[in-house]
Amino acid sequence: MSRLAAYIVTAPGLEQVTAAEMARLDLKVVDLGVGGLTASITWSQLMLAHLHLRTATRILIRIGRFEASGFGDLQAGLKEIPFHEWLPKRCALNISVSASASRLNHTGAIEERVRAVVRRSYDPAYEYEGGVHTLHVRMSRNICTVSIDATGDPLYQRGWRTESGPAPIRETLAAALLQWSGASTHKGVLTDPCCGAGTIMIEAAQMARRMPAGRNRSFAFENWMPVDPAQWSKLLAASDADVRGPLKKKYVARDLKGDMIAKAQANAERAGVLDDIVFEVGDATKLFNGPTGGAGLAVVTNPPYGERLSAANQRALYLELGKAERLAVVAPTSSLPSFKREFDDTLATSNGGLAVQFARVAFSG
User: Fold this and answer.
1) Which of 347, 182, 352, 165 is closest to 259 using CA atoms?
2) pLDDT at position 119, please?
3) Taking all residues of the chain, what is their mean pLDDT, rounded to a whole number?
4) Same domain, 76 and 116
5) Reduced to 3 states, what is the DSSP secondary structure of residue 344?
6) What are φ and ψ of residue 94, in 5° steps?
7) 186 shares a domain with 42
């Protein structure tokens, strides 16, 4: 098991963004799919990916692949997989089954056979010493692929955002916007005038200071049998040593509501970047009322849309945001003309199940 066959799950549309991030971490991408990438990685790279990848949702490790046209084939193939070499003792197993274009298509029956071979149960009412692990079994064209979830809770759950407001942007999506737009390498001040829980500026500040995205949480793979705890500890120490000092040019996060600013500050404190961001209560529709207008302002934001804002107020807000010299936004495709800017590039993805576009202008992605 010197190299691992990994599948890195992403939000649809972000595959190239995650591939570019993996390349910066020297992680070898084998193939790009829809909603994910396959990669060949080492154990240390698996740990590194969990610490530093900001745009991926989770990482699965393939431990078996075989043809299964019937339940006999399925059980025989499963018995060839050394589950005991992966899963810790006294752990629980959650089994996720999907099936398409296969003779075996009853997911419940497939799960029964898997559990009979693995002999691990799961009752959410109990706590398990070895943790709860998830086994993904995918049947496609009579080929069974068995993978273990190395991540546990999704990677967008960094551990610091315990307070949020309406329609928050996921941490992974915020990081993807920053990376794709080029804002993450911008040398000047970044501003989010619709900051909500502060996610975008917190992600930006952590990136600028080289703080590992996964430093404040644990992962499922930490309990796996082959994992060397000493190697994991050394990697954590090396990542901590690489963190830069506080930002000299503080980022700016504004919101119309004082209670949201208080939540954003609490999140920033848990993330270790409270002193890197100036938090202000302010009206984004009056962002450029000063004498300089939008000159020099670099805005990265997830402005409200849909039911959160009336059509007239949305147009007024977007028109004001469009005055920024540099702009990176998340918004529905139909709303982009309201910014009155000719964007350099756009990227289709989704936010909270709603189809949206990343759009950028004057940043170099």
Assistant:
1) 165
2) 80
3) 93
4) yes
5) coil
6) -95, 130
7) no
Q: What is the span of the domain harbouring residue 286?
A: 171-209+244-361
- In 3-state terms the chain splits into helix, strand, coil percentages (rounded to 5) of 35, 25, 40
**286 and 333 housed in the same domain:** yes
CA-closest candidate to residue 336, choices 353, 311, 319, 354: 319
Residue 239 contacts residue 215 (beta carbons within 8 Å): yes
Read off the pLDDT of residues 99-131 as tens digits, 9 standing for 90 and up.
Answer: 999 999 999 999 999 999 888 666 677 777 778
CA 147 to chain centre: 20
Residue 220 lies in a domain: no
Q: With pLDDT > 70 as the criterion, what percentage of the chain qualifies?
A: 96
Instruction: Indicate the SS3 state at residue 76.
Output: helix
pTM over 0.90: yes
Query: What six digits make up the tokens of 351?
Result: 């936010």
Residue 22 maps to which CATH number?
3.30.2130.30
**How does DSSP classify residue 238?**
H
Q: What is the pLDDT of residue 165?
A: 84
Cα separation, 361 vs 320, in Å, equals 15
* Cβ within 8 Å of residue 327, ≥6 positions away: 298, 299, 300, 321, 339, 341, 359, 360, 361, 362, 363
On whether the CB atoms of residues 263 and 295 are closer than 8 A, the answer is no
Phi, psi of 191 (to 5 degrees): -130, 135
Same domain membership, residue 205 and residue 143: no
Q: Taking 70 as the threshold, does the pLDDT of residue 294 lie above it?
A: no
Domain final position from 97, 119, 149:
149
- Phi and psi, residue 210, nearest 5°: 60, 35
Contact 60, 136 (CB under 8 A): yes
CA quadruple 117, 118, 124, 129: dihedral, nearest 10: 150
Tens of pLDDT along 42-101? 999 999 999 999 999 999 999 999 999 999 999 999 999 999 899 988 888 899 999 999
Report the helix count and the strand count for the chain, using DSSP H and E. 9, 14
Pick from 206, 204, 207, 194: nearest CA to 168: 194
CB atoms under 10 Å from CB of 219, counted, come to 23
